[in-house]
Design goal:
By secondary structure, the protein is mainly alpha-helical. It folds into 2 domains: 160 residues, no CATH class; 62 residues, no CATH class. Helix 2 runs parallel beside helix 10 and helix 4 crosses helix 5. The protein is elongated, with a radius of gyration of 24 Å. The mean pLDDT is 84.
Length: 232
């Protein structure tokens, strides 16, 4: 099971973790705000699901467009760099040597390796664009996969704060809110723990870190709803 999750998310950990965290916290913020404002269960579910799907779709499309924009920038910069290095090969070799020295290579090693690097133009351009701008090439398939993972992660985590209001018969939003807090806390801890699958961090450390960040956001949301109730 864990191996399957790791395979699916490989290369998209940031998308999945960011979306899942945002989904849980955003929906919980709506729940906390509604409870803080003393609104009823129907209003809570309507606002909760509206926020869940609208925010999830918005986040996914934003991710897709952002990835495509980065890809377009990559192509543009690659063409510009081709022109920059199309003439004298010494300029390309100097840039490659400077890059290698910044990575800890000696002058002699940098000299030898830079000569090898510039012979393979596509490889050289990929390395230099990544070094200069911090971007990499990505195609439409990658952008679409990233968007789908973002949307599903947002929905999966975002629906958790609503579960007590869906399955428990009580109309008292304050009573169900206790369970919403518990469910959301467990979800945030789990998201943080899963994040450590791709790092050397302890699973419990990642879980508590995510729980702390999400908990602060939840407290702010509840306080805002409670304060607004007092004003209006």
């Amino acid at each position: 099971m864990m191996k399957s999750i790791k395979t699916i998310l490989r290369g998209h950990v940031k998308d999945a973790v960011y979306a899942a965290n945002d989904g849980a916290v955003t929906t919980f913020a709506v729940v906390a705000g509604v409870v803080g404002a003393s609104l009823g269960k129907p209003e809570l579910l309507i606002l909760g699901f509206a926020s869940l799907f609208a925010d999830g779709f918005s986040m996914a499309t934003g991710n897709f467009l952002g990835t495509r924009s980065e890809s377009d920038q990559y192509v543009h910069e690659k063409e510009a760099m081709k022109k920059e290095f199309s003439g004298d090969g010494r300029l390309a070799k100097e840039d490659a040597g400077k890059f290698l020295k910044e990575r800890g290579f000696s002058d002699q090693d940098a000299e030898q390796l830079s000569a090898v690097m510039v012979r393979n133009k596509p490889f050289f351009l990929d390395i230099m664009i990544s070094h200069r701008l911090g971007i990499s090439d990505s195609n439409t398939k990658d952008a679409l996969r990233s968007a789908v993972i973002t949307f599903l992660s947002f929905l999966f985590a975002g629906i958790i704060p609503l579960l007590p209001y869906i399955f428990l018969s009580s109309q008292d939003t304050s009573h169900n809110f206790v369970w919403a807090c518990v469910f959301t806390g467990v979800a945030l801890f789990g998201i943080g723990a899963l994040r450590t699958l791709y790092s050397d961090k302890k699973w419990w450390s990642g879980g508590f870190e995510m729980l702390l960040v999400g908990g602060v956001a939840a407290i702010i949301a509840y306080a805002a709803g409670y304060a607004i109730q007092g004003i209006v």
